[in-house]
Amino acid sequence: MNEYIKRISFISIIEINNITKKILMILFIVVLFGLLFPIFTYAQIKINKEEFEKEYSSKLVLDKDDNLVFQKILEFPQYTKEKLYEMAKNYMDSRIQKKSVPYSTNTDYSYSNYSLIITERKNDFICFSKKIAGTCYAAIEYIYKLEIKDYRIRATIIAHRLGIAGSWGDIKDCVSNKHNKYMRRILSQFVDYTEELFAHTKKGIETPQMKMEDDW
Question: CA-based diameter of the chain, in Å?
């Protein structure tokens, strides 16, 4: 009987030790992940000079007025200019609440940190906006213009001012200092944003938002 009890006790001790080891291993992994997560997160918002030169530098084009310009042709092969204008206006109307501005002679809209002016000539949209550049806590002020022709829209983003901590300066100064790691982060995030805006515009015009009846 004593021998049996000793054997059971020995087995129990081994099992407890194994469980303890597993718990310690799990705790170690959790702690290690907790230590590494900030590093991974920081690495995601950081961009080195080589990556910046390869992916972003060539996209930073200044126009004759030293504005930073991004442009993309959005193709709509089945729609004429008149239909495209109507679709684009409906897209904006469904997403942006109307706002009256006394000094504006055009139709004026606003949504969050965006505001949109639609010209009366029915061939372009001009959007004045400020975009917070993600983790950088900087704002870039730009004009967004859609020029409409048969079967296509030319979307143009014209960035002209950069604001950091309430202080505003010309965007050209940001571009000229693009090798500064902080400026690299601002510019790379804004380039990513412009591509997202172009894609969002095309998808939004092609896929009108369904209007829900307020019948409750």
Answer: 101
Residue 45 one-letter amino acid = I
pTM of the full structure: 0.63
Give domain status of residue 215, yes or no: no
Contact 165, 182 (CB under 8 A): no
Average pLDDT over residues 88-113: 49
Q: 170 and 105, same structural domain?
A: yes
Quote the CA–CA distance of 143 and 12 in Å, as a whole number. Answer: 72
Task: Please give the average per-residue pLDDT across 18-27, as a whole number.
Answer: 51
CATH of the domain at 197: 3.30.530.80
pLDDT on residue 59 = 92
Residue 172: closest CA among 182, 181, 161, 163? 161
Given a cut of 50, whether residue 112 has pLDDT beyond it is no
Contact (CB, 8 A) for 148 and 88:
yes
Phi, psi of 69 (to 5 degrees): -120, 135
Burial class (CB in 10 A: 0-12, 13-18, 19+), 41: exposed
* Separation of alpha carbons 6 and 21, rounded Å: 22
Co-location of 30 and 65 in the same domain: no
* Rounded Cα gap, residues 182 and 189, in angstroms: 11
